[in-house]
# Entry
Amino acid sequence: MKPIPFNMKGTEYALTIKIATYPEGNLAIKLYQESFGQLVFWDSLTVNLSGLCPKDCGYINTRSAGKRFYAWIKRNGLGERTGQVRLEDGVEYVEYLFNAKKLKKLDPDGYTYYERRLKGELGRRYERLYQVLRRLANHIPDFCYTDYSGWRRLSDSINTPPLWIEAEDPAHHRHLTFEHRGVILRTTITDCDTDTVQSNLYRLRDDMAADLLTLYQGELPVYAPWSEERRRKSDARHDPSLAQTFKETSEVRQKAAKKKFRKRSTKS
# Structure
């Protein structure tokens, strides 16, 4: 496991990442430094706030290293901001979505344990909505949201709706609320200039996400669709035809049979 350099106040530290889980099952990323052939705890990259975090997400610990961790995460491709911000005891904590492939490569055993435990405890019923919110946070200036949803809590969630997200959009002077109460799925958009309120009701969770995406469709980057030729090449690479699979299997069996025949001939 190769250490990652980290500079702070003119000193360079070679840090090793270890993946763990907090008691509730949230992602914990610990940083260690080698000393006399042993790994010694240096600091925590993440901090455990109340409630549950989505998969591969965690709040950054800024108490010791300040905001230096933000640049370090970006420089090493470890993750990106989700747009979720929490204020606890006067300290602002920013949530990051970490690169699962990199974490698994840096600490396979630790990440595998975290992933298995997470699958048994957490559910992502609103996956599409969270994807859209992260996309808006990446492309819409100053867009951020705070998640009070009941599914994120382990206790005192009896009166908390399963979905309750408050979003701020200063660029368009909007305040957005996403709720799921009983059978009602609702998005409430408030115009901060005129105090005009617009409510939209939905039958499906994916409809809520699609409607939010449509609201910002003209301001998000558009990616060119694949050509038919590129799609065929991709399908051929990832999903070989039955004839090709049968041919490859036959060739492997023939080679194995020839090898087995040669061994018998040598013994006799």
Q: What stands out?
A: The first strand starts at residue 4 and ends at 8. Residues 238-243 have pLDDT under 50 and may be disordered. The chain has seven helices and 13 strands. The first helix runs from residue 68 to 75.
